[in-house]
Amino acid sequence: MELTAQEAWSRILESARARLPEQTFRTWLGPTKPVALTADDLVVSAPSDFAVEWIESKYSQLLRSLAKALLGEHVRLTFESRGSDGEVASFAGFKSPALQEFNPATDVEAAATQTGARGLLGTVNPRYTLETFVVGSNNELAAAACQAVADAPGQAYNPLFIYSGVGLGKTHLMHGIANAVLARFPRTRVAYLPTEQFTNELIGAIQARRTTEFHNKYRRIDLLLVDDAHFLAGKERTQEEFFHTFNALYDAQKQIVLASDRPPNEIPELQERLVSRFAWGLVTDMRPPEFETRVAILQMKAERDNLALGQDVINLIAQHCRSSVRELEGALIKLLAYSSLTHRDITEELALEILGGVLGNIRDISPEQIEGAVADAYGVAPDEMKSKSRQKRVAEPRQVAMYFQKDLLDLSYTTIGRRFGGRDHSTVIHSIRKVEERAACDPEFRQRLSAIRASLR
Ligand code: ADP
Ligand code: MG
Questions:
Q1: What SS3 state is found at 287?
Q2: How many angstroms separate the alpha carbon of residue 170 from the centre of ligand 2?
Q3: Rounded CA gap, 138 and 135, in Å?
C-alpha cells in the first residue's frame, strides 16, 4: 500500500494525539506539515527553528517510533523549519526570527525568482498584514499612513518614514504594506530589504564589478521598503548609492518607505541631503502600546491561533509586559512552552509562576497603593475598609485588599491585620481564603480581581 506523505503524517499524528495532552498537541504538532515521503525518508516541517528544536527534544522519540510502526524500520523521520526557506514562518502565530534576519548568503535574485510572478524582491511574511496590526493611540498615525500608502502607492506620503524602539511593529507594517499592495496590484514590483542587505549587495556588486546591474535592479522598483535605515549610519558608500536610488525612484513617483529606530536627524553620520529627503514626506513615530492595546494584541493572537487563554491570564501578561509587543509575544511563547512541558493548563497561577522574572516590577507597589486601587474599584473610601464595619460593601473590598497585600507583597498576616484596624491574623487568613475560594468558582469575581491587578502599575 502506497501512502502519500499527507496520509502517513496524518496517521502518525492521530496516534500521537492520543498519547499527548491536547494543549501540547495543538501547540507543537498541530502546525506541522508533511513535506515529502520517499522510500527512505519522511520529512516534516514545523513553523520555526524553535519549534523544530522543541519537537526534536520532546516528541521525536514518540514520533519516530510511530513512524517506524507505520512505515517500517528503515524510514527516517526528519524535521525542518519552514522559517528557513522564506515561506510562512511562524510558531503558533509568532514570527520566527529566521524570517526577519537577512541572511547575507541568500541570493536575493534567487528569492526574487521564487516569488517573481508576484514581482517581489526579498521576503515578506504573509502573516504580517495591515489587518492583523492592532491599532492603538501609540501607533495610530503610523498605521493610518501605511494604509494610505498601501491604497495609493507613490501618491500619499512619499517617503513614509516610521521610527520607534524595537519590537513595536515597524517591520510588521512594512510587510503589511507589501502584502496589501501585492494583493491589490499584483504586477507592482515590490522590494523589501533591510538596510544591511542593501549594503551587502552593494559590496558584492563592487567586488564583482557589477555596480551597473545593482543600480538598475533597484531603480526598476515601484515600491521600495527599506528596513532598519539607522544602519545607514556612517556607511558613506551605501549612503551615496542610496541617495541616487532614492532620487531615481522619487522622481519617477515610486513609493519609498523607511523604518528606523530613530528619526532621520538623529541617525549619526547620515548625509544632510539624506536627512532632508527622508523628511520630505511624513515622519512618524510609534510608542509602546498602552495596557488596553496590549490586551487587544494578545486577544487577537489568542483568537487567531486558537489558544485557550482566559481573560485573567491575558490581563496578567498585558500588565507585566510593557516595553514592546515582542516582549508580549515572548511571554506568551514562554507560557505555552511551559504549559506544554509540564502538562499544566494555562492559568493565572501558572502565568504568575512563569512571568515571575518580571514580578520584580510589582514589588515596588506599596500597601497604600493596593488599598487605593481596591477602594477605587469598589467605590469606597480606603478608611472605610479599615473601619470595624462588617457591611458587605466594605467587607468585600477589605478582603480583596488583604488578598493582594499577601499575594503581591507577601506581607505577614499580622502586618496586614494591623493595617485594617488591628484585626488578628486568623481573621486575615480567613479573609484571604474567602477571596481565593470565590475566585476559584466565580469568573466575574476573577475578572474583577485581574482588573485590579492590572490597575496596579
Ligand atoms: P520592529 O520592527 O519595530 O522591531 P516588529 O515588526 O518585528 O517590530 O514587531 C515585533 C512583533 O510584534 C511582530 O511579531 C509583530 O507582528 C508584533 N506586533 C508589533 N506591533 C503589533 C501590533 N500593533 N499588532 C499586532 N502585532 C504587532
Ligand atoms: Mg524590525
A1: coil
A2: 5
A3: 8
Residue 234 vs residues 134, 183, 192, 317: alpha-carbon distances, Å: 34, 36, 22, 39
Strand order in 282-285's β-sheet? 120-121, 190-194, 223-227, 255-260, 160-163, 282-285
Note the pLDDT tens digit of each residue in 119-154. 788 888 888 999 999 999 999 999 999 999 999 999
- Report whether pLDDT(88) > 60: no
Nearest CA to ligand 1 atom 9: 169
- Is 372 near ligand 1, meaning CB less than 6 Å away? no
| The pairing of beta strand 33-37 with beta strand 41-46 | antiparallel
pTM above 0.85, yes or no: no
The distance of Cα 284 from the centroid of its chain, to the nearest Å, equals 21
Each as own residue / partner, the long-range contacts of residues 37-40 (CB below 8 Å, 24 or more positions apart, any chain) are 37/3, 37/4, 37/5, 37/8, 37/9, 37/71, 39/75, 40/74, 40/75, 40/76
pLDDT tens digits, 150-201: 999 999 899 999 999 999 999 999 999 999 999 999 999 999 999 999 999 9
Ligand 1, atom 14: closest residue by C-alpha = 95
Contacts of 193 (CB under 8 A, 6+ apart): 102, 108, 121, 122, 225, 226, 227
Alpha carbon nearest to ligand 1 atom 6, residue: 169
CA pair distance 318, 361, nearest whole angstrom: 13
Cβ neighbours of residue 270 closer than 8 Å, sequence gap 6 or more:
232, 233, 239, 264
pLDDT tens digits, 39-59: 888 999 988 777 888 888 888
Q: Are strands 94-95 and 90-91 parallel, antiparallel or unpaired?
A: antiparallel
